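hiii, so i know i said id send this last week but things got crazy w the move. better late than never?? heres the sequnce for the chain we talked about at the cafe, plus the structure i predicted for it. fair warning i was half asleep when i ran it
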Amino acid sequence: MKFKRMLSLLLAFMLVFSLAACQQNEVEEPAEVENEEELVSAVVQGEGNGKYGTVKVEVTLENSEIKDIKVIESSESGFTEPVFSQLIQQVIDTNSTDVDAITGATLTSFAFINGVKDAVEQSGAVLTAKEVQAGEEKVEDVATDIVIIGAGGAGLTAAIEATNAGAEVIVVEKNAFMGGNTNYATGGMNVAGTKYQEADGIQDSAELFYADTMKGGKNLNNPELLKVMTENSADTLYWLESMGADLSQVGISGGQSVNRIHKGPGGMPVGTHLMDVFGNQVKNLGIDVRLNTKAVEILADGNTVTGIKVENKDGNSYEINAKAVILASGGFGANPDMVVKFKPELEGFGTTNAPGATGDALAMVEKLDVSLTDIDQIQTHPTVVPIINEMITEGIRGDGAILVNHEGNRFVNELETRDVVSKAILDQEGATAFLVLDKQVYDKASTYEKYKNQGLLKEAQTLAELAEIMKVDAATLEETVTKYNEAVKAKADSEFGRASLEIELITAPYYAVEVSPAIHHTMGGVTINTSTQVINNSGEVVEGLYAAGEVTGGVHGANRIGGNAITDITVFGKIAGANAAAFVAK
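okay and structure toks below
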């Protein structure tokens, strides 16, 4: 019995020891550890779809950190260079593609960001985002000869001319890039009496240009300002060419009695082309352009301006003291409240304008009692793609496209002034119409290929197939095009009186896009004299204050002719720059 009791105790002890040992082993056994992500070093290309096509980037990764990004292919507008630069810096600083798009360049921003994402995914790298302590930009008051509000076509023209005249210039731009509405200009520049017109056998003159524009503006144009624009148009074109512009191709636009619109090379949008030219001049001349800098107040001593107050992207303000101020901030076509204030019947209309066209200057000049001219004259562009508000250039009609309604019939002279064509479209079923063209017209400008790449132009091999896409009666559309082609052969449009009849629409493929009017240009603004000096309500000059471009009123009257905006901003921008420089040199 004693032996059995001892054996039981021994077995119990061994069992306890065994259990303890097992528990000890379980505690000491190392936990399973997930494999760490492999750090990737590679150079990889990626793609994203932009507004006008593919944006291709090359991303350099070192140990799964983005060290460099290059944009190696892009069909986006020229103004997007600073957009890419800012996005590249943000992505590298944060080691992340979770960055905000740049306002005013949303589609281009997403194309770049998606291109980087594509490259990173292909590399297999897993990015670890870095926190960046955003330091506020240091601000302090500065002084200069001339400060210019707005880095669009008018502002940069003035800056270049003033700098060449020996003045020190600062340009402020509230957006993240230069250009404003100039970036959106597609058609061309109306100019009279050029060597290019003469070479094509076109007889034109400043007087005829004046008459066409006055007629198009319903005789509301300021005669003195209009005379300055038309008489200085040719010299201004040659000045642009001296800086590298190519505006040698001449075509027709609505409201013109002769071929007068001078286009960019290869049908390139004129705004894109000129912004490339202006951008190069800004670099070459070392002009101080301050992006993300919004003018909020014009400083003055009595009736004499002394500079402006600005805010940077961090909301910090400082003063730019100057002997002269040039307003070149554009119109207010992207400010629906202001549009409705001055023209209530346009409530609900879309806009073709850049996001920055909000009429900031109108509030800033109030304390100076500045006079306004034609402020209720607001233009719609007749051919804008509904909902997305993408403008189809007037040049496409000048090149040979026709307009048909939902029944498949023509209903207007396509080359009438914008107000006439807009009204005609609004009178059709659904308040929309279709632009119809063939391959011959399509091949006339690279812009049209961009429309196709954007999915705007619908393509078909026959008119019957095109009619099916448009959801119009095929027989009617075919009859309409046949009748138009007969008018081209006869050089006489008995139905609507279209004068430019150059191309029979007979070459496949055929194209169509649905369009409707949208707010395009504000003809009214601050009152100026022929020296571009701003005038107050007492009829006096506001000393040291100049203005040029869409911020002004009087040049275009009740309706702007297509192609006259570029003429306006460059002619009067050049005058403003020269006169401001002379003023500060006194």
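btw The chain has 17 helices and 23 strands. thought thatd interest u
miss u guys!!
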